[in-house]
Design goal:
transmembrane; mainly alpha; membrane; transmembrane helix; 254 residues
């Protein structure tokens, strides 16, 4: 997985979850140690049991921080992906003949494969982290699973990228403009039908659904941008702590 950690391809971002957090924590430690308050604390001599308790407490806090970062990242990613894809699925699904068609089915397949890729890659990174950080001799099963899941995820991601390109061509070249696709046979089966001429009521409904889909996609993107900018803001240091660091230490002369 080392080659994926240094790779800039988006499909390799999964490999830097734990490595990124480790590097970010090390940089934070260096800044804290170089601050006046951190330098003052570094000269204290603490009993060994206090040091062990502090390290254990910090480990729990770091585990919680990592879990919180991953959780909110996953929620935002799923919200953006399925909020935009869901808008396209809704627009196509509600267009007569109402049902699962070639268009909506293509979007569902793309979104599902993308979700599977993320799931496999994330599980692979977890297994690789367990294998590389285990204090006891790690089981080779973790290594095998990490490698195989990573390979399957990359192959699936490549096929999904090809699929996006293909169904885009199918739509713009009117390959989907067939009785099978227009009748939504994929979802309706034997109850499929073809609309030869849309009524005024149907056209009004189609316009409403497509407008809703566009607003849903745009709204999803806006909410994602706002949430991302809010969550990426660093935590503010308490005012009393800032004043304590900025106030010079007074020395009493005899």
């Amino acid at each position: 997985m080392d080659e994926d950690i240094v790779s800039t391809a988006p499909v390799c971002y999964y490999a830097r979850i734990f490595q990124w957090f480790k590097v970010a924590r090390e940089i934070t430690d260096q800044f804290e140690a170089s601050s006046p308050l951190g330098s003052h604390r570094s000269h204290r001599v603490e009993p060994e049991h206090c040091t062990l308790l502090r390290d254990a407490d910090r480990s729990r806090v770091e585990s919680y921080d990592l879990f919180f970062i991953i959780s909110r990242s996953v929620i935002l990613a799923f919200f953006l992906q399925w909020g935009t894809i869901g808008a396209a699925i809704l627009s196509q699904y509600m267009t007569p003949a109402k049902g699962l068609s070639c268009w909506s089915g293509s979007y569902i397949l793309y979104g599902s494969l993308a979700t599977i890729v993320w799931l496999l890659a994330s599980i692979s990174s977890i297994f690789a982290h367990i294998y590389s950080t285990s204090k006891a001799p790690p089981s080779p099963v973790f290594r095998t699973l990490a490698i195989n899941l990573r390979i399957v995820a990359k192959i699936t991601a490549g096929l999904n990228a090809v699929w996006v390109f293909m169904f885009s061509i199918f739509q713009f070249s009117k390959t989907y403009n067939t009785c099978y696709c227009n009748a939504s046979v994929l979802g309706l089966g034997t109850k499929a039908y073809v609309v030869l001429d849309f009524t005024a009521a149907q056209m009004t409904a189609i316009t409403a659904f497509w407008t809703t889909g566009m607003l849903m996609a745009a709204g999803t993107a806006c909410v994602f941008i706002v949430a991302f900018n809010i969550l990426k803001q660093p935590l503010e240091m308490p005012r009393d702590k800032v004043q304590e660091e900025q106030t010079p230490t007074s020395h009493t002369h005899p």
